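User: tokens in, sequence out, please.
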């Protein structure tokens, strides 16, 4: 499961068993499909959950990357750098409770998000800010999955290969941000 550089290779969606093997500070290469969503999509999804309506995509067991991918004039991905996760903290606990297994972003999370991660045996994975071009190279395909009217903030299904992240918060609440 580990390569020579010490990365653990994880297939998406992350199984509960695989999540249990990861600890804060682990270097991970993700392979498979995850969903992208930013502020506007999170606000809409929170509205669905509050109204007891189904989400537009089944996120149970899935990974959500806090990004709005950028595309060139031919529709090819040219950037996919993470946005600050704290902007989704008002919505994240409800999404973890709805079955999201992991989120990917940058920066520390609120106490409510730590609690939701522990309560659900979930993960928070950190991507490197400013490395959007590197992450675009790991993107195999990107397709709009929901909320296409939101443009770059639409929910997209993104297939990745060798997408590097660090486990920021593990399912026990251990964190690379601990002081």
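Assistant: Sequence out:
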């Amino acid at each position: 499961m580990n390569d020579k550089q010490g990365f653990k290779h994880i297939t998406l969606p992350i199984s509960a068993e695989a999540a249990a093997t990861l600890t804060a500070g682990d270097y991970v290469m993700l392979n498979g499909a995850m969903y992208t969503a930013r502020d506007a999509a999170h606000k809409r999804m929170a509205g669905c959950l509050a109204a007891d309506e189904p989400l537009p995509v089944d996120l149970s067991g899935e990974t959500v990357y806090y990004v709005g991918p950028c595309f060139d004039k031919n529709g090819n991905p040219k950037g996919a750098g993470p946005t600050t996760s704290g902007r989704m903290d008002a919505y994240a606990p409800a999404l973890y409770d709805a079955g999201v297994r992991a989120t990917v972003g940058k920066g520390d999370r609120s106490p409510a998000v730590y609690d939701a991660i522990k309560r659900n045996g979930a993960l928070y994975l950190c991507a490197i800010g400013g490395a959007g071009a590197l992450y675009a190279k790991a993107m195999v395909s990107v397709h709009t999955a929901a909320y296409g009217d939101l443009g770059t903030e639409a929910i997209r299904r993104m297939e990745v290969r060798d997408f590097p992240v660090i486990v920021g918060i593990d399912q026990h609440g251990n964190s690379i941000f601990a002081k």
